[in-house]
Design brief:
about 130 residues; mainly beta; five-stranded mixed sheet; 1 helix
């Protein structure tokens, strides 16, 4: 209860991104797979999403995704990538960087209510 009482209002938000397709635990067919999601820049004035990177191996290596539309300050931006995934289990991971150089951290800061968690988004998938 004491932590809840000490909680302060949220005035700014943290850079964040997520994978929307495929869903966690999905089973995809071998071959080309579309991976897509969204990214949101930090709450700093004028920040836009500059780059979204995707990892097919749990964050060991990264590739740049395609960004939809034009960047707009403070606005979400859709991203996508067409990739070849071999048969087996994979951990897809996404991270974003904004125009002010803020990059989504591997692990977000913990807080009691989970607000603004912005660690890398991870989605396990299986390719058969």
């Amino acid at each position: 209860k004491a932590e809840v009482a000490k909680a302060e209002p949220i005035y700014d938000f943290a850079i964040n991104s997520a994978i929307c397709t495929p869903a966690p635990g999905a089973v995809a067919k071998t071959g080309r797979t579309k991976i897509a999601g969204y990214a949101l820049p930090s709450g700093e004035r004028g920040a836009t999403i500059d780059k979204v990177e995707l990892s097919l191996d749990g964050g060991k290596s990264w590739r740049t995704t395609m960004l939809a539309d034009r960047a707009s300050a403070g606005s979400w931006r859709l991203w996508s990538a067409e990739v070849e995934l071999p048969a087996g289990k994979h951990e897809l991971v996404v991270r974003a960087t904004d125009s002010l150089g803020n990059t989504q951290p591997e692990r977000g800061e913990w807080n009691l209510k989970g607000y603004q968690f912005n660690g890398w988004h991870r989605v396990p998938v299986e390719v058969a």
